[in-house]
Write a structure and sequence with these properties.
It contains three helices and eight strands; from the N terminus they run αββαββββββα. The chain is α+β, with helices and mostly antiparallel strands. The strands form two sheets. The protein has a six-stranded mixed β-sheet with strand order 1-2-3-8-5-6. Strands 4-7 form a two-stranded antiparallel ribbon. It is globular, with a radius of gyration of 18 Å. The chain starts with a helix and ends in a 19-residue tail after the last helix. The model is unreliable at 1-26 (pLDDT under 50).
């Protein structure tokens, strides 16, 4: 029995050493993150670049730290529609074309099932805490630099 307990303790220790040291609130979805400048603020964005992660987005979260968000990376540029099913926190959304030009923005209300359109073809959507767009000062027509690691969906 002592060997079993020792093995369990060792396994837990190895797991803890290999685990990400970031608090869960910084990346609740377990997704990889990228750093991105939006206006004059540096954001940490979770990358949703597959259908499963895009469908779940920021659902079921009670909060998101300041200067954090999620970037949705689509394989093509098309008109996009978002809604707030099972999303508890108010969000701003920026829609960007393939060059990173902001084509539209909106603020979304928790649990609102109304579709929020991009109003133009978009390859990326970035969700931030509500009020972040105003704080960054970015506007429709400006171009943001999409991080290289978030330009295309990972295969």
């Amino acid at each position: 029995m002592n060997r079993f307990v020792a093995a369990v303790v060792l396994a837990l220790g190895v797991c803890l050493l290999g685990c990400d040291a970031k608090p869960a609130t910084q990346n609740q979805g377990g997704l990889r993150t990228v750093s991105m400048q939006i206006g004059d603020k540096p954001f940490t964005l979770e990358v949703a670049d597959n259908e499963f992660n895009q469908e779940h987005g920021l659902m079921q979260r009670d909060s998101m730290p300041d200067l954090h968000g999620m970037v949705f990376v689509f394989p093509d540029e098309a008109e996009r529609f978002f809604y707030m099913k099972n999303t508890r926190i108010p969000l701003d959304i920026l829609f960007l074309d393939h060059n990173g030009k902001i084509v539209s923005t909106a603020t979304m209300t928790p649990y609102d099932l109304s579709l929020v359109p991009s109003n133009a073809p978009a390859k990326y959507a970035i969700e931030l805490n509500a009020g972040a767009i105003k704080q960054t000062g970015v506007k429709v027509g400006q171009t943001l630099k999409i991080p290289d690691d978030a330009r295309e969906p990972k295969k």
